[in-house]
UniProtKB/TrEMBL annotation, chain A:
Topology class, membrane: Multi-pass membrane protein
Lineage of source species: Bacteria, Bacillati, Bacillota, Bacilli, Bacillales
GO cellular component terms, A-Z: plasma membrane
Keyword field: Cell membrane, Membrane, Transmembrane, Transmembrane helix, Transport
Biological process, per Gene Ontology: transmembrane transport
Protein name: ABC transporter permease
InterPro entries reported in the protein's UniProt record: BPD_transp_1_N, MetI-like, MetI-like_sf
Transmembrane segments: 12-31, 100-121, 133-161, 167-185, 226-252, 272-298
Keyword Acyltransferase: no
Gene3D superfamilies documented for this protein: MetI-like
Keyword Transmembrane: yes
Family statement: Belongs to the binding-protein-dependent transport system permease family.
UniProtKB/TrEMBL annotation, chain B:
Primary subcellular site in the record, as a coarse category: membrane
Localisation per UniProt entry: Cell membrane
Name this polypeptide is given: ABC transporter substrate-binding protein
Keyword entries, A-Z: Signal, Transport
Topology relative to the membrane: Lipid-anchor
Gene Ontology terms for molecular function: peptide transmembrane transporter activity
Protein family per UniProt: Belongs to the bacterial solute-binding protein 5 family.
GO terms, biological process: peptide transport
UniProt-listed Pfam families: SBP_bac_5 (PF00496)
Native source species: Heyndrickxia camelliae
Top-level taxon in the UniProt lineage: Bacteria
Stretches assigned to the Solute-binding protein family domain: 85-436
């Protein structure tokens, strides 16, 4: 177990390092922040001065080295726009993102797994077709459009729910549904197909033949054995959700990490973007790590190997 | 068997019922917060983004400025209709000589925390801009200030290192007065969240990326504000802003896209207010790199081939005011210039004279997407108009930051779409667009540069106007660009809210009221 943890930690560091490196160089290709932060009438010498102050006049490898050295110490610099510490700005948006992510994930698991099981159990029946149809629909609708549609009907037409912003539980309902729609589709389809595989297995047939009640066969024997691939999927989606659901957060004006990253990217606020990428890479790695441990819990064979 | 089949279905049913119950609960909430009652004492304004900081004189940015102008007062303000100057915290201003401006201040004004407003405060704020440590992006505009002298408690002198004829415009458009005591006591980082000004509203709560709530300053020197509370809600996505407006959650927002105007007009609780902005849109003809556009006749031909009236009518549904020269009519130094008009035959003739067959001309046109009203659609329409005389135009749509970088680095295509403003005087447009260092018009000519250099330091207002008038004629004759229009600023406003748009694009809650 200790060896496993050490190995995964090293992997994690490599992943984070690579992510930061890639984003660092991609950002520099995207243009000069001085252009966007200074007023358009700023003369050349002030632009030069500004770039010098930010260190953008140095060779790229020097900037990169300097960035890495500071990043290791947790210092991502100041936001170019608000001059606040970049990492603190990102961390300040984390609670809102987590709130939405867990709500959406919870909702999708709650809906998707029963649909998946029902579809598999009642394969090629009316229930199955409805289930599969709904999931395909969920996966096909772009969240941008679904979000706007929900806002339009629930806020603008019927005045049932707020159109966006943070604050109360009511503000959470529409973004949670929007965000869950896609995961529901993925989880349900996946549950259905793994359940179908498992349901064909000999031990299920034996269990059925020996008169074990169907609910028990489904939930105790079949579901538990289908869980491993589902856990991977859930973990991957959770990683994505915790990194901030960019589109959903923007559409619903949700004050989370995804929206912050989007705006910072458009503003060329490099320190914030890099701190945000760092945060996402860390969360992603940790979630995957937890998923690996969860496999071992569900299937002791993995631990032995 | 039948029973067992129903069980999973029941589970689903429970989930959906829960979702629906939650929905109805939200219903009561939104009703109690009330979207439609008239006589409200708060107003909610929807805006794209957060302020970068609540410190004054720091961030040259409309989004920041429109919010903090409710907290701080300027010394001199713009007349909302004409753009002329009016007293605010200052009562009088005059220049003693070409290097010295003297400003007399009101004596009865206090900051929101009780500190007195005086000449020291004015000095502090100008010095703040000039101090490089403060990273103010206003610095370049104020760089020619040598010293600020406190003459008396209510009198201050600004001494410049060069003649500075546009000083009053700088003061009106840039300078806001924050309380020196507060900044010194809290430090910049804290003062950026807890600002103190002399303005009609104080900060109640600022939640980053969510909202800024202001509360009335009942001791305001112009009188008690009639609206007690004002909130700026940050809604980045336009469609969401529109929905929030239609649902009554916000009472006001700026920049309704032309193609969504009907949504607001047809809503029974809302109205559209509009004003001709000082912001101008143009089609730049790039002479900064080699190509046919370096030829004056080609540029003139394009001016003849672009039908601005048609663009205004079909693409913008009439929301804009046609321009013919480099400046809009709002501009104090505007002179009437020749209108090229639409004349495709003349365009073809000029191209022929220049030695070009229109069918061989292949040009590129860079445009941002969503920065200016219908910008990329305008670009497509211009391409279609030029195609009528045979010129092949390839439209390149850019993300805004990229578009700006391309222009700055002089890598933009043969033509590009850009806007400029707010601008009320000739110099701030002409100097920043048509000089050698300025890439934003894509046009450079050494004769024009000489004329501008000569006009800038002229102090006498009449002579100045004359000099800039000649430059305007020169630029039109050179066909330096294709002038398009003054943007129309379109505001969605709650039917019961008394709000009149202003040429400087400000949204002063103090001037608003509920019917």
């Amino acid at each position: 177990m200790v060896e496993f943890i050490i190995k995964r930690t090293i992997q994690m560091i490599v992943v984070i390092f690579l992510a930061l490196t890639a984003v660092f160089f991609l950002l520099r290709l995207s243009g000069d922040p001085a252009t966007l932060f200074l007023p358009p009438d700023a003369p050349k010498d002030q632009i030069a001065q500004y770039r010098e102050m930010l260190g953008f006049d140095r060779p790229l490898y020097v900037q990169y080295g300097d960035f890495l050295l500071k990043a290791i110490q947790g210092d991502f610099g100041e936001s170019l726009r608000s001059h606040e510490d970049a990492l603190s700005v990102v961390l300040g948006r984390v609670p809102a993102t987590f709130q939405l992510a867990f709500a959406a994930l919870g909702l999708s698991i709650l809906i998707a797994i029963p649909i998946g099981i029902l579809s598999a159990y009642k394969r090629n029946t009316f229930y199955d077709r409805i289930g599969v149809g709904l999931t395909v629909l969920g996966q096909a609708i772009p969240s941008f459009w679904l979000g706007l549609l929900l806002i339009f009907f629930f806020a603008a037409v019927f005045h049932l729910l707020p159109s966006g912003g943070g604050g109360t539980i009511y503000h959470m309902i529409l973004p949670t549904i929007t965000l869950a729609a896609y995961s529901v589709a993925r989880f349900a389809r996946f549950t259905r197909s793994t359940m179908l595989d498992v349901l064909k297995k000999d031990y299920i047939r034996t269990a059925k033949a020996s008169g074990v009640p169907m609910m028990r066969v489904l939930f105790k024997y079949a579901l538990k054995n289908s869980l491993i691939p589902i856990i991977t999927l859930v973990a991957l989606d959770l990683g994505v959700l915790l990194g901030g659901a960019v589109i959903t957060e923007v559409v619903f004006s949700w004050p989370g990490v995804g929206r912050l990253l989007m705006q910072s990217l458009l503003n060329r606020d490099f320190p914030i973007v890099l701190a945000g990428v760092f945060f996402i890479a860390v969360v992603y790695s940790i979630i995957n790590f937890i998923a690996d441990i969860a496999y071992a819990y569900v299937n002791p064979q993995i631990r032995v190997k | 068997m039948h029973k067992k089949m129903l069980l999973p279905f029941l589970m689903l049913l429970v989930i959906f019922t829960t979702a629906c119950t939650a929905g109805t609960a939200g219903d009561e909430e939104s009703k109690s917060s009330g979207g439609k009652s008239s006589k409200k004492n708060n107003v909610v304004i929807g805006i794209e983004a957060d302020a970068a900081t609540l410190l004054a004189n720091t961030d040259v940015n409309y989004i920041t400025d429109v919010q903090i102008r409710n907290i701080y007062d300027p010394l001199i303000k713009r007349n909302p209709e004409t753009g002329g100057f009016e007293p605010a915290l200052a009562t009088e201003w005059k220049n003693i000589d070409e290097y010295t401006w003297e400003i007399t201040l009101r004596k009865d004004v206090k900051f929101q925390n009780g500190d007195p407003f005086n000449a020291e405060a004015v000095k502090f704020n100008i010095d703040y801009i000039l101090d490089k440590k403060n990273n103010s992006t206003y610095l370049s505009r104020w760089a020619d200030i040598k010293e600020v002298k406190v003459i008396a408690d209510d009198k201050v002198q600004i001494i410049t290192s060069k003649p500075f004829p546009t000083m009053i415009a700088r003061i009106a458009d840039d300078l806001l007065i924050m309380d020196p005591g507060n900044v010194k006591k809290l430090g910049l980082e804290e003062a950026a969240k807890n600002p103190v000004g002399t303005g009609p509203y104080k900060v109640k709560e600022w939640v980053r990326d969510d909202h800024l709530t202001l509360i009335a300053n009942d001791d305001y020197w112009k009188g008690k504000p009639s609206i007690k509370e004002a909130t700026f809600r940050y809604i980045p996505e336009f469609s969401s802003r529109l929905s929030a407006f239609l649902s009554g959650e916000i009472d006001l927002f700026k920049n309704i896209p032309v193609d969504s105007l009907d949504n607001v007009k047809n809503n029974e609780n809302s109205k559209v207010e509009s004003i001709g902005s000082s912001r101008v849109n143009y089609l730049a003809l790039n002479t900064l790199h080699k190509g046919p556009l370096q030829n004056q006749k080609v540029r003139q031909a394009i001016n003849y081939a672009v039908d601005v009236d048609e663009l205004l009518k079909t693409v913008l549904n009439g929301n804009g005011t046609k321009m013919t020269g480099p400046l809009s009519k709002i501009n104090a130094d505007y002179v009437e210039t020749k209108d090229y008009g639409y004349n495709p035959d003349k365009a073809k003739e000029l191209l022929k004279e220049a030695g070009y067959d229109p069918k061989d001309l292949k040009l590129t046109l860079d445009t941002p997407n969503g920065r200016y009203p219908m910008d990329s659609q305008v670009a497509q329409a211009i391409a279609a108009q030029l195609k009528r005389i045979g010129i092949d135009v390839k439209v390149q749509v850019n993300e805004w930051g990229n578009h700006l970088t391309k222009i700055q680095q002089r890598k933009a295509g043969d033509m590009f779409i850009l806007g400029w403003g707010p601008t009320f005087d000739a110099q701030s447009t002409i100097q920043n667009l048509f000089m050698k260092d300025a890439p934003y018009s894509g046009f450079y000519d050494s004769e024009v540069e000489k004329a501008i250099q000569k006009a800038i330091p002229i102090f006498n207002q009449d002579k100045r106007k004359q000099a800039f008038g000649e430059i305007q004629q020169l630029l039109v004759d050179q066909a330096a660009w294709v002038p398009l229009w003054q943007q129309a600023d379109l505001y969605a406003v709650n039917k019961n809210l008394d709000f009149k748009p202003k040429v400087d694009e400000s949204m002063q809650v103090f001037d608003m009221g509920w019917k």
